[in-house]
Specification:
Blueprint lengths: L2 H17 L2 E4 L13 E8 L5 E8 L10 E5 L8 H6 L4 E3 L11 E3 L9 E5 L9 E2 L7 E2 H18 L8 E6 L2 H18 L7 E7 L5 H6 L1 H7 L5 H11 L6 H4 L1 H14 L17 H6 L1 H13 L2 H6 L19 E2 L6 H9 L3 E7 L7 H9 L5 E10 L2 E9 L3 E6 L34
Parallel strand pairs: 4-7, 4-10, 9-12, 10-11, 11-13, 13-16
Antiparallel strand pairs: 1-2, 2-3, 3-7, 3-8, 5-6, 14-15, 15-16
Helix pairs in contact: 3-4, 4-13, 7-9
Length: 445
């Protein structure tokens, strides 16, 4: 064997080992001093030759890592990086909103981190999201059903490398488009626990925010949602119901009168921000838009932070593995082949798994009405009827619990994709997934 070939093989072995090992991160650029929690980052290879390298951030619970639940979190898209969930949704740090001066954006502690009561594994999936990448140039088209298989493989391999967490109570969580992946992954884990894989994953249930479940029904529910939020008139709504017969997506293509009404609806709502009707509807990357609302400015700050070489070095990102970090990739080849995740919810309920489903009440894309509709279609009896839940004696939303161990929650005045940092409290509500771990004095629900 030639010296050149030996060197190439050695480099391949070193690269493969690095790609599949986790590293403890004690400092992050932008945060002063050592991190006040334990962070591990790394890659897990999936596929026949582990050609797909999935990047993760793992944060140990700040309470009791040995006994607290283990939770995997996936952002939606498909193609949005989970670092957004880490820094803007449920993690222990967030980026400080301040004018960018060319330096690394500052990181500050987050008040409502879920890591105060759980170990959290943030995953960049599918490949092409965040820092996850392919080791070979082959064209790879993922799909809803294929992602379920890949994330399950990731979980088994990650737990094999961290066997001390096999006994922890385990939950699957995510938001937006993850509403397709999470319920199917819960079913997959449950099936494989009995079929082949030992030790079993200690699966208990799942958590979903503004979950995409059936896109057609979610589009149809925009109309009653818009009426309820006073975006369209009573007269237009009643006429649309009569003419379109509740089918505003496919009905319009077969009914010219319905099509005209849909156009009137669009004239009233086209300039509404569908993710949060309170926000200005503008290009989030434009300076003009950023000046109008500070919430959109955080996307730019996150991009500056994640693309900084010092940050990527600290996170142990493989050099040359991606060209540019983007919050949500629009170039991933992906087949949305799951029409509805409702059958998986039904099966998971029948298997006795608990679930917490929540919606920001100002989201028109996946509105609380559409989520409430499919939950009601399950025909489970109500065991804890509609009531407010509170933070510091203020109403933060409303909740209802069903006999299938499913809790439905609304979060007041937010879209959970953009402002989710209050929702640690959701798990503390009566019947919540991890209620026994909550401090009732701090979370008076």
């Amino acid at each position: 064997m030639s010296l050149t070939l030996k060197l190439l093989l050695l480099l391949l072995l070193v690269f493969s080992h690095h790609a599949n090992s986790g590293s403890i991160v004690k400092f992050l650029p932008g945060f002063e001093g050592p991190l006040p929690f334990e962070l591990e980052t790394g890659y897990i290879g999936v596929g026949e030759e582990e050609e797909l390298q999935l990047f993760y951030y793992f944060i140990k619970s700040e309470n009791n890592p040995q006994e607290d639940p283990l939770l995997i979190w996936m952002n939606g898209g498909p193609g949005c990086s989970s670092v957004y969930g880490f820094l803007y949704e449920i993690g222990p740090l967030t980026i400080k909103i301040e004018a960018y001066d060319g330096n690394i954006p500052s990181l500050v502690p987050s008040t409502y981190s879920w890591t105060k009561m759980a170990n959290i594994l943030f995953l960049d999936q599918p490949v092409g999201s965040g820092f996850s990448y392919k080791r070979t140039p082959i064209t790879d088209k993922s799909s809803d059903t294929l992602e379920v298989v890949r994330v399950h493989e990731f979980l088994r391999k990650w737990l094999d490398k961290h066997p001390e967490f096999f006994s922890n109570l385990f939950y699957v969580a995510g938001n937006s488009y993850s509403g397709k992946i999470v319920p199917a992954l819960v079913q997959k884990i449950s099936e494989e626990n009995y079929r082949c894989c030992k030790p079993p994953i200690n699966l208990q249930g799942y958590v979903l925010g503004n979950p995409v479940t059936n896109i057609v029904e979610e589009l149809n529910n925009r109309i009653p949602y818009a009426h309820g939020m006073a975006l369209i008139s009573d007269e237009l709504y009643e006429t649309m119901k009569k003419i379109c017969k509740g089918n505003y997506v496919f009905g319009a293509s077969r009914n010219t009168e319905c099509l005209k009404l849909i156009e009137n609806f669009r004239k009233c709502t086209d300039n509404i921000h569908v993710y949060n009707i309170l926000l200005p509807n503008c290009d989030m990357t434009s300076p003009d838009c950023l000046e109008k609302h500070f919430k959109t400015y955080k996307f730019l700050l996150l991009s500056y932070w994640a693309n900084d070489k010092r940050v990527q070095d600290a996170l142990q990102v493989n050099k040359g593995s991606i060209e540019e970090w983007v919050r949500c990739s629009g170039t991933i080849l992906y087949n949305k082949n799951m029409n509805s995740s409702l059958p998986y919810h039904i099966n998971n309920s029948n298997q006795g798994y608990r679930s917490l489903i929540y919606n920001g009440d100002h989201d028109m894309l996946v509105s609380f009405l559409s989520t409430e509709a499919w939950i009601k279609s399950l025909n489970y009896s109500i065991i804890d009827d509609w009531r407010p839940w509170l933070i510091k004696n203020q109403i933060a939303g409303y909740t209802r619990t069903y006999a299938n161990k499913m809790t439905f929650v609304t979060v007041k005045e937010v879209d959970t994709r953009q402002s989710i940092n209050q929702t640690r409290a959701l798990s503390c509500s009566n019947g919540g997934l991890m209620a026994s771990l909550c401090n009732r004095d701090s979370w008076p629900i």
